[in-house]
Design goal:
The structure holds 2 protein chains of 2 kinds.
Chain A: H1 2-24, E1 27-29, E2 36-42, H2 54-68, E3 72-79, E4 82-88, H3 92-109, E5 114-115, E6 120-121, E7 127-129, E8 133-135, E9 143-144, H4 146-149, E10 151-158, E11 161-167, H5 198-210, E12 218-223, E13 229-234, E14 240-248, E15 251-256, H6 261-278, E16 285-292, H7 298-311, E17 320-324, E18 328-334, H8 339-347, E19 352-356, E20 361-362, E21 374-377, E22 383-385, H9 386-392, E23 394-398, E24 407-410, E25 416-421, H10 424-436, E26 442-446, E27 449-452, E28 463-466, H11 472-484, E29 491-499, H12 501-554, E30 558-559, H13 561-574, H14 576-590, H15 595-627, H16 630-662
Parallel strand pairs in A: 9-30
Antiparallel strand pairs in A: 1-8, 2-4, 2-5, 2-6, 3-4, 7-8, 10-18, 10-29, 11-15, 11-16, 12-13, 13-14, 14-15, 17-18, 19-23, 19-26, 20-21, 21-22, 24-25, 25-28, 26-27
Chain B: H1 3-6, H2 15-36, E1 39-40, H3 42-45, E2 47-54, H4 62-71, H5 82-95, E3 102-106, E4 110-115, H6 120-142, E5 145-153, H7 155-183, H8 186-210, E6 213-214, H9 216-246, H10 252-284, H11 290-325, H12 332-340, H13 370-377, H14 381-398
Parallel strand pairs in B: 1-6
Antiparallel strand pairs in B: 2-4, 2-5, 3-4
Helix pairs in contact in B: 2-8, 2-11, 5-6, 7-8, 7-9, 8-9, 8-11, 9-10, 9-11, 10-11, 10-13
Chain lengths: ~675, ~400
């Protein structure tokens, strides 16, 4: 018996040590030198063009800095816009000196470099073990969720879209635009009764579509002429289901969320039938039908582009990007300071188009702050909205024809412009296109908005610039979007949860206090109710705590706020098995058995109940894991792992402890178990 | 400490009382649900939630807090004048034309504003508007307003969450039903599930009464209770099964009653310990998880009640009902029982109410604990031991599966 006890004690201590080493990782590889200091710099524009050039650029940088900084440890491009430098600094002062030297050296190469205020200095080890290992102050190594460390979680949802534009002959308009120039409407040829206002036509078309099953619970006029005339239908959940935009008296653009080609055809036909019925005798043509659908692989394509965009951004450190189903991409951005800006870049379609504008239109006379919203028809001298011009222009080239090496550069007046270059296979086509269309306007359009409309002066070999009074941020954003490519489908933000780091830190702080108090209460309760066995169960509970943390680290689980709550609650659940056993133990003692016999009987008889009771908790936890949200998944993981761990600690380990106690002289006394002596 | 071991409380015979208490609570909860409505969070409805910290400049650190408090005694003390703050914020927000908003002061310096806006572009604008308006109109009194968190849930997500919640509950209950049917028997499984549904209904009703917000964590709370509350019932049934083997001749009601009393300490203590941790989380764990913890507290308490007073007695009621239907009221076992002198139970009861279980006639076991009564029922200690040994052998052979 005594030999077995030694083994048990050794096993318990070993478990403590191993659990502690895994959960808190106090022993890690030693830093080379006593302390290392790490600095981060961001560049306003990418230093390299392609991801695979990062390594070579990094080694160049390393060689460059090595000459200037004596104790350089490493220098590299973490992303094309982020430089990370670390030095062997033994003290805080040296670290600061190093930082100045590094910054100066880098400024000679990149004058517009930005220095990140926070400087990471590596953990200072308490003492070193030989040359490879060092002891650090123990810290829990569990990955924290975004709600605790701060950051944003964004769920992007791909939406299908079908766009059809209908045109009637120019002298027979469908719509009377109330632009205030009543006389200008060339309504002579058409029967006046047929002409509708944009709002009427919008509502009528939406009603026609609704009869085909396109939900239209809320129909709103988003914007009225003269700016634009747009009528939008939403479903009961306020999601846009269809929209009708009158861009000109004779041109209507209908958009729906058709999921399949079949639905797209159905919607198109419904709109067409309505128009034919409403404007008899007028030949209405379909122009520019464009559909994108969401299907297999959509999410992967979106993920690819989102990844490239995030990768090029200096503000984002370790994004986690996953797909979910065919239409969802989940992006986790830990520690982002300005999540709104990142989110904005994520869901911008970034469809760049080069359009040849019909000859009749002229851009508004060239003021510098031109936004190209109103053009002029040079024959009729009427104003035309950009949407109308755009609808009548031909798209010649798109962003997909560009090499992904657009960059911000100074223009002629030292303003910021974005330079682009066409792919080699498109250069010849572009040259020919420009040669054929000398003196015409070419609009450069981003997501439907005209950025600039230069006149083609001569043939262009295949490179160019985009100008648009950009601020540095706008320019680098545009370059980034062009390089990453356009999204294949419009994206919608289905979910966005942003938490600041301070709120997260507060939550951790509060949970920690609650946890300590909760733990103390459980410990006190166990001792009061079960005396010595209760105290021994508390030892097992501490082991449970350590082992659960170790398990969580090994399972690479994320700890969220509900997760922490689950962790603390599981402290109470972990002693459940002990309570079951000790109640049984008391009963056996009451019936007059000896302590040892009662302990054996208590543990044996309680076992089936313990297993059944825990299996049901496991069932609840696993269902939750598969059907819960990500914050709740963490809770489920803790619930499930907690059951597994406490089945071991609360049954096996506490049995060892209580059995060993029963073999001491004190352990024979009934009072130790909280049971009065039998009279 | 050992009160329940000495008492001879006829829990299993007072089913009417327990059923009535439960019915009242559930109907009350459902009434609250029906008439007050559930306070559905944006996780379900879609919408935006803005979290603003006030006074401390958003730093949250003690020092800044203190500095801000010294400079402005009212800063960071929102909760003391929660009603006033809420009213002020509401008037500011309504001045902006934001509709359907809900405003909550959570903790010392956190302000939660919920609106129906469910798309990103509008939400970004709305957040900026609200922030600047609050800063302008209330900043001088309350200190700096800082946006510390934003949540936006689109309409698709909420629908999916509701669907998932439903399936999670169905699946969880079904799996537990199957597990308990395999391990015990169908009646036990059904009784446990009834107790479970009881708990879930009480949780929903309680949340409706407390006007607490339901969000995705509520699903986690429900499933935790589904797992944990059943485990309470399971322990009781395990004991009933064991006692049944030891005292074959005793009727189910006596056995159930004794088993309930034997496991009472455990049932109460287990939940008590979990409640200790939950209450410390409720009072100290920060305002963000209040609804989640509240749901767990309601569920745990209800779980304790339902496993003791609903699940066990329900099996007894069911047993009586089915016996009566089969016309086996006077079973041979019971006759033997009365010879042995244990508390007679259902042999004399009005035929039209099968649930009537008032113990009639003399109480031979008066003054004795339930356990002692049960011991008496089984003939002698020797026989008991013999039977125990026999049962153990059988149990091993049959893998422990046994009908009542």
């Amino acid at each position: 018996m005594q030999g077995r006890f030694k083994l048990w004690i050794a096993a318990i201590i070993a478990l403590f040590v191993v659990g502690f080493l895994v959960a808190f990782a106090p022993i890690r590889p030693a830093p080379r030198g006593f302390q290392e200091a790490a600095f981060r710099y961001t560049l306003p524009q990418p230093a390299v063009e392609k991801a695979d050039q990062l390594d070579s650029a990094s080694s160049e940088l390393m060689a460059f800095l090595k000459e200037k900084v004596s104790d350089l440890r490493s220098a590299k491009f973490a992303t094309p816009t982020v430089i990370e430098v670390s030095t062997f600094a033994t003290t805080e002062e040296i670290a600061n000196q190093d930082r100045q030297t590094v910054t100066q050296a880098l400024r000679t190469k990149y004058p517009d470099l930005r220095e990140e205020t926070e400087v990471r200095t590596a953990d200072k080890p308490i003492w070193t073990l030989g040359s490879t290992l060092a002891v650090y102050s123990p810290r829990p190594q569990i990955r924290l969720g975004l709600d605790l460390q701060g950051g944003a979680q964004v769920v992007l949802l791909a939406r299908p879209e079908t766009t059809v534009s209908f045109v009637s002959p120019e002298d027979k308009p469908m719509v009377k635009l109330a632009t205030g120039e009543e006389d200008a409407a060339p309504a002579e040829g058409a029967a006046p009764s047929n002409v509708q206002t944009p709002e009427e036509l919008g509502r009528n078309l939406i009603r026609a579509l609704a009869q085909q099953g396109v939900a239209a619970d809320i129909v709103e006029v988003e914007s009225a002429p003269p700016a634009r005339s747009l009528v939008v239908a939403r479903d009961a959940k306020r999601q846009i289901t269809s929209s009708v935009e009158c861009v000109a008296a004779y041109r209507v653009v209908v958009k729906t969320r058709a999921k399949t080609q079949l639905e797209a055809d159905r919607d198109r036909n419904a709109a067409e039938r309505y128009l034919e019925g409403a404007f008899p005798g007028i030949e209405i043509k379909e122009d520019k039908v464009h559909s994108v659908f969401v299907g297999k692989g959509t999410a992967d394509k979106v993920k690819d582009i989102v990844e490239r965009r995030l990768y090029a951004m200096s503000a984002v450190r370790e994004p986690i990007i996953q797909t979910q189903g065919d239409d969802r991409v989940i992006v986790e951005l830990p520690g982002v300071k300005d999540p709104a800006a990142v989110v904005e870049i994520l869901h911008e379609t970034a469809q760049l188009q080069f359009c040849l504008v019909p000859q009749k239109y002229q851009p508004p006379a060239g003021s510098e702050e031109n936004d190209y919203s109103i053009w002029t028809n040079q024959y009729t001298k009427q104003e035309a909205l950009w949407a109308q011009v755009y609808a009548e222009s031909d798209i010649e080239f798109t962003g997909a024809d560009l090499k992904p090496n657009s960059k911000v550069q100074p223009g002629q007046a030292m303003e910021l412009v974005v330079g682009f270059e066409l792919r080699n296979e498109q250069k010849e086509a572009f040259r020919r296109f420009t040669a054929h269309n000398v003196d015409r306007y070419m609009a450069i359009v981003l997501d439907g908005k005209c950025q600039m409309a230069p006149v083609i002066r001569s043939e262009i070999p295949g490179t160019g610039i985009i100008e648009g009074n950009f601020s540095p941020e706008e320019a680098s954003k545009l370059a980034l979007l062009l390089n990453a490519g356009a999204l294949p489908v419009p994206l919608e933000i289905a979910e966005n949860r942003t938490v600041s780091a301070t709120l997260g830190a507060d939550s951790i702080h509060q949970s920690l206090i609650a946890g300590i108090i909760g733990f103390a209460l459980v410990v006190a309760f166990m001792i009061l109710a079960y005396r010595v066995p209760g105290a021994l169960a508390n030892i097992a509970l501490i082991l449970y705590l350590v082992l659960l943390m170790a398990m969580l680290r090994m399972a690479n689980a994320t700890l969220t706020l509900p997760g922490i709550a689950g962790f603390i609650m599981s402290l109470g659940m972990a002693v459940d098995a002990n309570i079951l056993i000790f109640e049984r133990l008391k009963e056996e003692l009451y019936s007059g058995k000896t302590a040892r016999a009662s302990i054996a009987a208590g543990f044996d008889r309680a076992w089936t109940a313990i297993v059944d009771a825990n299996v049901t908790t496991l069932i609840g936890g696993s269902v939750l894991y598969f059907l819960g949200t990500s914050a709740v998944k963490s809770f489920a993981v803790i619930l499930v792992l907690g059951v597994v761990v406490h089945l071991f600690t609360a049954v096996t380990v506490s049995r060892w402890l209580v059995t060993m106690f029963a073999h001491t002289r004190l352990g024979q006394k009934l009072a130790m178990y909280g049971v009065p002596k039998p009279e | 400490m050992d009160f329940w071991r000495r008492t001879n409380w006829k829990i299993a015979s007072m089913v009417r009382v327990w059923y009535l208490i439960s019915a009242v609570m559930i109907i009350g909860g459902l009434g609250a649900w029906q008439f007050m409505g559930l306070n559905m969070g944006i996780d379900f409805t879609g919408g935006s939630l803005y979290k603003l910290s006030v006074g401390a400049g958003g730093a949250g650190a003690e020092q800044t807090m203190q500095a801000a408090t010294e400079a402005n005694p009212q800063a960071g003390r929102l909760s003391r004048q929660a009603a006033e703050v809420t009213a002020q914020v509401r008037s500011v927000i309504e001045g902006l034309g934001v509709e359907h908003s809900s405003i909550q002061v959570a903790g010392g310096d956190l302000l939660l504003i919920r609106t129906a806006t469910n798309n990103q572009d509008e939400a970004t604008k709305e957040a900026a508007h609200i922030h600047s308006a609050l800063q302008e109109k209330m900043g001088s009194t309350w200190g700096t307003f800082t946006i510390v968190g934003n949540e936006l849930v689109g309409p698709v997500v909420g629908e999916q969450l509701k669907r998932n919640a439903f399936w999670a509950l169905v699946l969880g209950n079904l799996m537990i039903l199957i597990y308990l049917t395999v391990r015990y028997e169908f009646r036990v499984a059904v009784a446990s599930i009834v107790a479970l549904v009881h708990d879930v209904l009480l949780m929903i009703g309680g949340m409706a009464l407390a006007r607490a917000e339901l969000n995705s964590e509520f699903i986690a709370a429900m499933l935790t209770i589904v797992g944990f509350s059943v485990s309470d019932s399971v322990v009781i049934f395990d004991r009933i099964r064991e006692n049944k083997r030891l005292h074959r001749s005793t009727d189910l009601e006596t056995i159930t009653n004794a088993s309930l009393l034997q496991t009472m300490h455990r049932s109460i203590n287990t939940v008590l310990v979990v409640l200790l941790t939950l209450f410390s989380l409720f009072f100290l764990g920060g305002p963000t998880i209040h609804p989640f913890i509240l749901a767990l507290i309601i569920g745990m308490t209800s779980g304790m009640y339902s496993s003791i007073f609903i699940a066990g007695p329900l099996v007894v009621s069911w047993d009586k009902w089915s016996r009566k239907r089969r016309g086996q009221v006077a079973a041979t076992g019971r006759q033997r029982l009365s010879v042995a002198g244990a508390a007679p139970t259902s042999s004399v009861r009005s035929p039209e109410s099968p649930m009537s279980v008032e113990p009639t006639g003399a109480e031979p076991g008066e003054g004795l604990s339930a356990e002692q009564a049960m011991h008496r029922a089984a003939n002698t200690a020797q026989e008991e031991k013999r039977e125990e040994r026999r049962e153990r052998r059988k149990a091993k052979g049959k893998g422990g599966k046994k009908r009542f």
